[in-house]
Amino acid sequence: MRKNRLYRVLGLALLGFALGVALTQGQQELDPYKEAERQRELFRQTAGILPGELYAAQGEELFHAKRGPKQVSLEACDFGLGPGKLEGALTQLPRYFADTKRVEDLETRIVSCMVRLQGFKPEEVKRDEVKALVAYVASKSSEMPINVVPRTSQEIAMYNLGRELWYHRAGDRDMNCAICHEAYAGRKVRLSPVRSPRQGLSNEWPAYRFEADKLYTLQDRIAFCYESVGIHPPDYYSEPYIALSMYMLAEATRGKNRFTEMPGFTR
Ligand code: HEC
């Protein structure tokens, strides 16, 4: 289990966090939502299409193409609503899948379908392809209500692990994710208004981040939070991401939140 390492590295966040909060004092005001809206309009006017839509189009092509050693498409991939049913699929992920006997989020599920259906070896699965496929599948859940309710024992265990990781206090100064996203919820950390899971944290991913000029999945965004406070993030598709996503999205469900436009467009 990688949990111990995660706890240890969370401790390293203490100093970075303290510095980040201190540095925001006195900086000039900037509304990141208005700025994102302005950038989005610029893209619409100049390119006629949003970058997130380009990723989704690439994902759509990958989804329907016969690929891998078995030369089949991903059309038989079941995201929880039946083979090939994509409408609203993201709204109920992560969830337990009987075929892999695992709780999977969208990214992990795409990888397991590429492995099980198309015959790719896990190490052959390209991260950029997974991201484009995430954008495509997510685009079918645009603006829909989030509906993640842990029911099976495996889902409840995953939710509990996520909550444990979220609240686990580590290091000399007793830090955790909750300190930023709950104690500071509604306030600003590094110019960004921070939200709590009940306020819908995690409802805009996958999203195109114009400051980075890249598509970020939810796993990428969690990894970015780790990195921004000096923590080495866990490997993609590993349990801590699935657990934290399960926790955040189940809480977002309790707060009656919807997804934004999918893929999102944000700073
Ligand atoms: C140093 C404070 C800090 C810590 C610790 C921290 N975050 Fe964040 N997080 C932020 C800030 C600042 C943002 C950017 C908010 C924005 O731009 O909307 C953010 C953004 C996010 C987002 C995307 C924002 C959204 O609206 O969807 C997610 C998801 C997230 N954090 C999850 C986590 C998780 C999980 C942890 C613990 C493993 C964590 N964060 C720890 C400060 C923190």
TrEMBL record:
Biological process (GO), any one: sulfur oxidation
Active site: C225 (cysteine persulfide intermediate)
Organism field: Meiothermus luteus
Main location per the UniProt record: periplasm
Gene name of this polypeptide: soxA2_1
Cofactor detail note: Binds 2 heme groups per subunit.
Lineage, broadest ranks: Bacteria, Thermotogati, Deinococcota, Deinococci, Thermales
Binding-site residues for heme c 2, renumbered to this chain: C177, C180, H181, C225
Entry protein name: SoxAX cytochrome complex subunit A
Quaternary assembly: Heterodimer of SoxA and SoxX.
